[in-house]
Amino acid sequence: MKVLAAMSGGVDSAVAAARAAEAGHDVTGIHLALSRNPQSYRSGARGCCTIEDSNDARRAADVIGIPFYVWDLSERFHEDVVEDFMDEYAAGRTPNPCLRCNEKIKFAAVLDRALGLGFDAVATGHYAQLRTCADGLIEMHRAVDHGKDQSYVLGVLDQGQLAHSYFPLGDSTKTAVRAEAAERGLLVADKPDSHDICFVADGDNAGWLKEKLGDRAPNHGGPIVDDSSGEELGRHEGTVGFTIGQRKGLRIGTPAPDGKPRFVLDIEPVSGTVTVGPRERLAVDGLTGIRPRWCGTVPDRLAGPGVTVQLRAHGDEHRAVVERRGDEVTVHLLDPAYGIAPGQAAVIYDGTRVVGSATISATVRAAVGATA
């Protein structure tokens, strides 16, 4: 099989490329140049998007003994991921740029180009497993290492994309992958994982958004109000500095009557109003999802002990009943979830199998007093 290995410069993608080559595939390594100005992206050994990451990927390809190229997808990345990130926050939603990057860049732009060049599959260092059923349907399942499982951010892939995807690390633990990298002589064996958003250099999402949005920001300040009384508790400089469920950085001088911390419950970008209240008011037991993407057969209804929904990367699984209504998905959570915001992805599972995903457009608050 002719395989294009996407190499970020981190340990996972390096070992994935090495395993693909060792399995006898004809492997070519590529590094994606995603920044218009690489110096403005995060620096340090973090495994994504910097010049040093490109150099690390090239050195790994040399050790493995495969050809290596750099593909410039900076314009596509800016349009489909960075602009989407800004637009979503400006509208008061909380997006996941890594999920969008997988959907629009790694398994769309890269895969399309790879197929056009005669490659059979794109290999990445994601922790997920693919299984081919007797009828030819390809299922995606959680990785063996549940602590590193990345099926959540791959829940946007459809059957056509899965048919040309290759995840060599799905049956391994991260500890084993690092040990294997060291044995193979890959210098990235001990390189730290990347956790922050790659295009936010200092990790300050709110500060970056305020600077980049400028006049596009929906407001330049507004009130912070109490959910129960409607009392104005303070002022803020822009709603892009807040997310649903946020506790820190509210700068509210007046303590709550019960002395407990307050959390962001709602963000209204047009009026600039940020509503805060107690943690129990964050509980939701229902949500609506739009723009669904299905990994295989499109279901009408899913229910049963194995049906769960994951609402954030590495978040908990919530037992659920899922129904498809045209281009929308409704989810009833059997166990309330906390701090769920429009814009996040709801990824649907049946056991370990990924069924599909949808973008949360609205949530339904659980009755006060409900427990998780």
TrEMBL record:
<comment type="function">
    <text>Catalyzes the 2-thiolation of uridine at the wobble position (U34) of tRNA, leading to the formation of s(2)U34.</text>
</comment>
<feature type="binding site">
    <location>
        <position position="32"/>
    </location>
    <ligand>
        <name>ATP</name>
    </ligand>
</feature>
<dbReference type="GO" id="GO:0103016">
    <property type="term" value="F:tRNA-uridine 2-sulfurtransferase activity"/>
</dbReference>
<feature type="binding site">
    <location>
        <begin position="6"/>
        <end position="13"/>
    </location>
    <ligand>
        <name>ATP</name>
    </ligand>
</feature>
<comment type="similarity">
    <text>Belongs to the MnmA/TRMU family.</text>
</comment>
<keyword id="KW-0808">Transferase</keyword>
<feature type="active site" description="Nucleophile">
    <location>
        <position position="101"/>
    </location>
</feature>
<dbReference type="GO" id="GO:0005524">
    <property type="term" value="F:ATP binding"/>
</dbReference>
<keyword id="KW-0694">RNA-binding</keyword>
<dbReference type="Pfam" id="PF20258">
    <property type="entry name" value="tRNA_Me_trans_C"/>
</dbReference>
<dbReference type="GO" id="GO:0000049">
    <property type="term" value="F:tRNA binding"/>
</dbReference>
<protein>
    <recommendedName>
        <fullName>tRNA-specific 2-thiouridylase MnmA</fullName>
        <ecNumber>2.8.1.13</ecNumber>
    </recommendedName>
</protein>
<dbReference type="Pfam" id="PF03054">
    <property type="entry name" value="tRNA_Me_trans"/>
</dbReference>
<dbReference type="InterPro" id="IPR014729">
    <property type="entry name" value="Rossmann-like_a/b/a_fold"/>
</dbReference>
<feature type="disulfide bond" description="Alternate">
    <location>
        <begin position="101"/>
        <end position="198"/>
    </location>
</feature>
<feature type="site" description="Interaction with tRNA">
    <location>
        <position position="126"/>
    </location>
</feature>
<keyword id="KW-0067">ATP-binding</keyword>
<dbReference type="Pfam" id="PF20259">
    <property type="entry name" value="tRNA_Me_trans_M"/>
</dbReference>
<dbReference type="InterPro" id="IPR004506">
    <property type="entry name" value="MnmA-like"/>
</dbReference>
<feature type="region of interest" description="Interaction with tRNA">
    <location>
        <begin position="148"/>
        <end position="150"/>
    </location>
</feature>
<feature type="domain" description="tRNA-specific 2-thiouridylase MnmA-like C-terminal">
    <location>
        <begin position="285"/>
        <end position="360"/>
    </location>
</feature>
<keyword id="KW-0963">Cytoplasm</keyword>
<feature type="active site" description="Cysteine persulfide intermediate">
    <location>
        <position position="198"/>
    </location>
</feature>
<feature type="domain" description="tRNA-specific 2-thiouridylase MnmA-like central">
    <location>
        <begin position="213"/>
        <end position="277"/>
    </location>
</feature>
<dbReference type="GO" id="GO:0002143">
    <property type="term" value="P:tRNA wobble position uridine thiolation"/>
</dbReference>
<dbReference type="InterPro" id="IPR046884">
    <property type="entry name" value="MnmA-like_central"/>
</dbReference>
<dbReference type="InterPro" id="IPR046885">
    <property type="entry name" value="MnmA-like_C"/>
</dbReference>
<keyword id="KW-0547">Nucleotide-binding</keyword>
<dbReference type="InterPro" id="IPR023382">
    <property type="entry name" value="MnmA-like_central_sf"/>
</dbReference>
<keyword id="KW-1015">Disulfide bond</keyword>
<keyword id="KW-0819">tRNA processing</keyword>
<feature type="site" description="Interaction with tRNA">
    <location>
        <position position="344"/>
    </location>
</feature>
<feature type="binding site">
    <location>
        <position position="125"/>
    </location>
    <ligand>
        <name>ATP</name>
    </ligand>
</feature>
<keyword id="KW-0820">tRNA-binding</keyword>
<dbReference type="GO" id="GO:0005737">
    <property type="term" value="C:cytoplasm"/>
</dbReference>
